Amino acid sequence: xxxxxxxxxxxxxxxxxxxxxxxxxxxxxxxxxxxxxxxxxxxxxxxxxxxxxxxxxxxxxxxxxxxxxxxxxxxxxxxxxxxxxxxxxxxxxxxxxxxxxxxxxxxxxxxxxxxxxxxxxxxxxxxxxxxxxxxxxxxxxxxxxxxxxxxxxxxxxxxxxxxxxxxxxxxxxxxxxxxxxxxxxxxxxxxxxxxxxxxxxxxxxxxxxxxxxxxxxxxxxxxxxxxxxxxxxxxxxxxxxxxxxxxxxxxxxxxxxxxxxxxxxxxxxxxxxxxxxxxxxxxxx
Length: 285
Prior knowledge:
Strand order of the largest sheet: 2-1-3-4-8-7-10-9
Number of domains: 1
CATH superfamily: Thiamin diphosphate (ThDP)-binding fold, Pyr/PP domains
Number of strands: 10
Helix content: 25-40%
Oligomer: single chain
CATH class: Alpha Beta
Low-confidence stretches: none
Radius of gyration: 19 Å
Mean pLDDT: 94
Order of helices and strands: HEEHEHHEEEHEHEHEHEHH
Strand content: 15-25%
Largest sheet: 8 strands, mixed
Number of helices: 10
CATH architecture: 3-Layer(aba) Sandwich
Structural class: alpha/beta
């Protein structure tokens, strides 16, 4: 049985004291330990940002890509080797702004991987610009007179896209967050887990106290997560009350089933001889 400390990389951590990312990192280690996954079984894929540094602090396979481009790399890795447990992760700017189009199509393709988005409603690495999820009227370095734009509602988009698994966690509810990570990884198609976290340096609005007064757990049996209509209503709930837990599930088949990959030898192990490709090449030349 693996232990949380088995995933410690030993690298110095470059986050601000009090950053919610520390709690997310600890929840990660506990979730991976509960799943009894060996470090070599895991691939963490990230883009750019404070959230995207998290794989540096875990002992596992890691791929750092371009800003907003974690999902294409994660998709390719999972298709090439479906035996890997593939998790893409990053922040709200990385995932919903630069990576917004990839996010939509990853849900549509429904490859068996998990996407964990740290949502602190601001760009932290680049010193506090408004992000796609920043509240309207929020004062930031790029919106000194208040953010004029309504925030994106990524979980509502995910429900509308019939995403296989949609959940939201909060770093102040560690046990639930760990459980949601475990559920997302166990789900055998595309899973979205958004994780609310304060940015203590640049977001003075959405603080630990602010979240504490608003987040509430979705209790089992309180509503049907397989109901797209009910889930959509929950996904739009934001302000005085913010639900955390599993918002939506669907019974969609994963890409691996449609492509005939499930239960077969991974693509990267399949040997192809040059002569096998000759006929294909002749079709184009």
